[in-house]
Amino acid sequence: MRIILFLLLFSLEIFSQQFYQLLIKHEAKEIIVEAFSKNGLTFLPVESFSKALQLNYKFNNASQQFEITFPQYVLKVRPRNSFVVLQMKKDKTEKVVQLPVSTVSVKNKLYLPLEYAQSRLEKCIGSEISYIRVEKEIVKRQPPAPEEKKENEEKEITEHELSALSVSVSEKANGTLVKLISAKKVGKVTHTISDDIIKITFPAVFVDEKKVEETFSKGLVKEIKAENTETGCDLFLSLRKNYSAYEFIEEFLGKQFLVTIHNKKFTANTDTKKEKWNFDVIVIDAGHGGKDYGAIGVNNTVEKEINLAVALKVGKLVKENLKDVKVVYTRSDDHFVELYKRGKIANENEGKLFISIHCNAAPKKKRDPNGFEVYLLRPGRTEEAIGIAERENKVIEYEEDPKRYQKLTDENFILVSMAHSSSMKYSEKFADMVHRQFEQNLSLTPRGVKQAGFYVLVGASMPSVLIETGYVSNPQDAAFLRSEKGQLQIAQSIVSSIKSFKTYYDRVIGSE
Questions:
Q1: Which segments within 89-220 are labelled E, that is strand?
Q2: In this predicted model, what pLDDT tens digit does every residue of 156-172 receive, in sequence order?
Q3: Whole-angstrom Cα distance, residue 344 to residue 355?
Q4: pTM, 2 dp
């Protein structure tokens, strides 16, 4: 079984769930709901919360989403999904937001991860909310005297600041994950590594040093230490020698940060035969197909048709210009291929490069965006990238078993992408080459190399990129994409990138 399947299987965890009562304060109101904790996070019942605040809510069977109506917004959430939609009631415009952790469905009730959804709820409500965990019986207290109230407030602020940063460490099959959660939004966090110690500096955050400091007997992190300074705090992660690299990811608006530390055994090449790594196979993936039309743009420009036409032209040019490179198509005609099978095809053919070809599209009545983009597999860093990934990932609705992708939600997706760390430098190199070739040779607007969570790239255990060749929703782009001349220019630019990348790849592999 391929290494990526191994990682998908063992990256999953069985979490214990603990239900308890949660006291939520909103302006002068205090409400109590039954929440539960999972992996150290608080999950809020959507229906109970809506009832308590006397908000209208409904479950839309057609879209499989829960809709909560606020005075100015409608919040849309789905079970077991990390994407939420914020719709303005006035003009119906929608904003897609990706939470670091998915919603949870327990006993037919939908729960939101409160730490991450709090700011969205506050935006919808129009004011701040706070919450504390309480015992089953809550004792009503008399309001304190003004002096006592002031003293208590000062005490609460101090305690809040001293416990502002929580740290948790979990071991995965492919490395170690350190999760850092701040109770309040912080400024720019910096990180460096020296002598196998990662130093992370948080401005204006203070920690309980004794509570944070811990020694571990296994895993890649052997010790954590904390030190408060005049301007904030420093966190020190001492690593064992069997790590290969680490990544620091800001996951949620200055409140959650992840440190992924990669295990050497998953980044080292276990096969010492150099011919195993010869650049001899490329896999070309024409996005969508068959019953999945993809985006449909102006003048009936159909994405699946453009993708296939460009993919076939790329393959033909590779065969003509790179005689020693085999071309493998995930589809060479108009039929539907499930996303996981595309990566499986690439792995079974021992591909050295995976290229997924797509077209972009903007929402209706928004035809201004135009140009090309190149994407790498990583969690989306911008709302636009997240929105594009969500649209491309919706292909799973056509598949027989869309539940197979649930394991790739929330932080597990990041852990899976860690498996690509050994090939990430190659993916980044090729993405940069594609972008430069497009910028030099095409009249399309360059929109940069970006990152997003595309399911199609997860399964391919090799350097891989996804190319959005242009916007079918833009009249000029659509006309270019439909034309034989435009498709050929795109294909030629991709093949020029492949030739340059092969030269680079052969040189690097040959020197190892």
A1: 94-98, 104-106, 109-113, 129-134, 165-172, 175-182, 190-194, 197-203, 214-215
A2: 323 333 436 788 887 76
A3: 14
A4: 0.53
